[in-house]
Design a protein that fits this description.
The chain is α/β, with parallel strands linked by helices and 293 residues long. It has an eight-stranded mixed β-sheet with strand order 4-1-9-10-11-12-13-14, with helices on both faces. A four-stranded mixed β-sheet has the order 3-2-7-8. The chain has a two-stranded parallel ribbon with strand order 5-6. The longest helix has 15 residues. The protein is built from nine helices and 14 strands. It has a single domain, classed as UDP-N-acetylmuramoyl-L-alanine:D-glutamate ligase (3-Layer(aba) Sandwich), CATH 3.40.1190.20. The structure holds adenosine-5'-diphosphate. Belongs to the carbohydrate kinase PfkB family. Ribokinase subfamily.
Length: 293
């Protein structure tokens, strides 16, 4: 069992030939509305990767909340502990131009209200083999969940995204850190030249490097580079979410960690073959197929 504690957003994505400037109105070409937020993405990714998984998060009392719950549930995620708070859901307003550049405004809405975890929410954390969290909800909440996880032997995977500094109080509870280069730099001041610098903070870490694969390092002295799986890349959005979730699923299944990282790399690569975020997250069969290559 994997439990994901994190954010859920409705992504409202509009496409136009060119992005509007301040004060300007531009006529667009396409619009899609898709579930997003790193928490929801990773919960969906974990379910597709084959875990029985629950999502702890907060949606608003608006129509976006209703749709978010329906979509996350339809992906096979247990949303029985998903909170509804009065007000707006988290929303990402995304504008994309003809060459793929974007402007993104995220209003956290209900995600900001996810504090003071209930007994039932904490029990869901304790019942899991692995807990996965990111930093799009209040960091105190992540710490609270990680403390519950620790007390029950649930392994704590922290995807320290988006990039920011993380309190020592939380880092001390982390079993496995997953960061990309920007996030690693925010934590250690050093990027791909020194993945082992992460071991000053946590006992095990993965540094993901997009098409350059990933480093796995731990305090037992392991430092292994896992190459990326070669695929025809369409859009690398959410590759990190697919990677983190697959890593947690494989680790929860008791697989050897290096093997889990290789499987996660296959999941990240699979995700880049399709346009979009949550819609591009791979199922287990596709991950297995790329892993076997
Ligand atoms: P994030 O999306 O968090 O920035 P990365 O871009 O580092 O994360 O991607 C996470 C993982 O997904 C990488 O370590 C790699 O295994 C896989 N991946 C990402 N981009 C590619 C790519 N272009 N080709 C193959 N694998 C990729």
């Amino acid at each position: 069992r994997v439990v994901v504690v994190g954010s859920a957003n409705m992504d409202l994505v509009g496409t136009a030939p060119a992005l509007p400037r301040v004060g300007e109105t531009v006529l667009g070409t396409d619009f899609v509305m898709v579930p997003g937020g790193k928490g929801a993405n990773q919960a969906i990714a974990a379910a597709r990767a084959g875990a029985s998984g629950a999502f702890l998060g907060a949606i608003g009392s608006d129509s976006f909340g209703v749709t978010l719950r329906a979509r996350i549930t339809a992906a096979g995620v247990d949303t029985s502990q998903l909170r509804v708070t009065y007000g707006s859901s988290g929303v990402a307003l995304v504008m994309v131009n003809a060459v793929g550049e974007n402007l993104i405004l995220v209003t956290p809405g209900a995600n900001a209200s996810l504090t003071g975890l209930t007994d039932a929410e904490l029990a869901a954390v304790r019942d899991a083999d692995v807990m996965v969290a990111q930093l799009e909800i209040p960091v105190e909440t992540v710490t609270e969940a990680a403390m519950a996880a620790r007390s029950a032997g649930t392994r704590v995977v922290l995807n320290a995204a988006p990039a920011r500094q993380v309190p020592t109080e939380l880092l001390d509870l982390v079993d496995m850190l997953v960061v990309n280069e920007v996030e690693a730099t925010a934590l250690t001041g050093r990027g791909r030249e020194a993945p082992e610098a992460l071991l000053d903070l946590v006992p095990r870490a993965v540094l993901t490097l997009g098409a350059d694969g990933a480093w796995y390092v731990d305090r037992d002295g392991t430092a292994v580079h896992v190459p990326a799986v070669e695929v025809d890349v369409v859009d690398s959005t959410a590759a990190g979410d697919a990677f983190t979730a697959a890593l947690a699923v494989a680790w929860g299944e008791g697989r050897d960690l290096l093997d889990a990282v290789r499987w996660a790399a296959a999941a990240g690569a699979a995700c880049t073959r399709r346009l979009g975020a949550s819609v591009a997250l791979p199922h287990r069969a596709e991950i297995d197929e790329l892993y076997a290559r």
